[in-house]
Write a structure and sequence with these properties.
Number of domains: 1
Distance between the termini: 51 Å
Strand content: 25-35%
CATH class: Alpha Beta
Radius of gyration: 18 Å
Number of strands: 8
Length: 167
């Protein structure tokens, strides 16, 4: 095994080491991270943290990079499953990830959440849009209601392309 398939974390004096294997289900063989593309190999530390962290904050910058939209929405589902113990700080440009979070909030409100998923509510998600200005960065909180809808418009038309393309 090369070093890329091990992730270590220090917790106090005890160090835990996790081993993961990526399986190509179509061919039924194990593959290395370099064989599945940049996006998947960069996502592995977030996946390991999401399933192994027992407390604290997990931060990740653009976990959606180089990933298919189907995987981007799966990231959102992954992040909703351990929120009772872990807080996530995710920097993203993925409309797919955000839309899945909104959908899961709406499904919880409507009692239509798929079986096996932990629920999330509007207060479980904070969407902050950071806007650079001449006087520094302004943090804009984009509110969410119980129906999984934004209560404010995004500054500068961010995420407006979807609505424009549907019209």
């Amino acid at each position: 095994h090369d070093d890329s398939d091990f992730i270590s974390s220090n917790e106090g004096e005890e160090e835990k080491t996790y081993h993961y294997t990526i399986i190509d289900k179509f061919n039924q063989i194990s593959v290395t991270p370099s064989e599945v593309g940049t996006g998947v190999s960069q996502l592995m530390p977030l996946i390991i943290a999401a399933v192994s962290q027992e407390s604290g904050i997990v931060a990740c910058e653009q976990p959606e990079l180089h990933l298919h939209p189907r995987i981007q929405v799966a990231i959102a589902d992954l992040l909703t499953q351990n929120i009772g113990k872990v807080n996530y700080l995710i920097e993203t440009h993925s409309e797919h990830l955000i839309l899945r979070l909104l959908k899961r909030i709406r499904q919880h409100t409507d009692k239509e959440l798929p079986e096996g998923l932990d629920f999330i509510q509007k207060n479980d998600v904070a969407i902050i849009y950071l806007e650079p200005t001449e006087n520094g960065v302004i943090a804009n909180n984009i509110g969410i209601d119980e129906d999984g809808e934004f209560t404010e418009n995004w500054p500068h038309g961010f995420f407006s392309e979807r609505r424009q393309e549907l019209m």
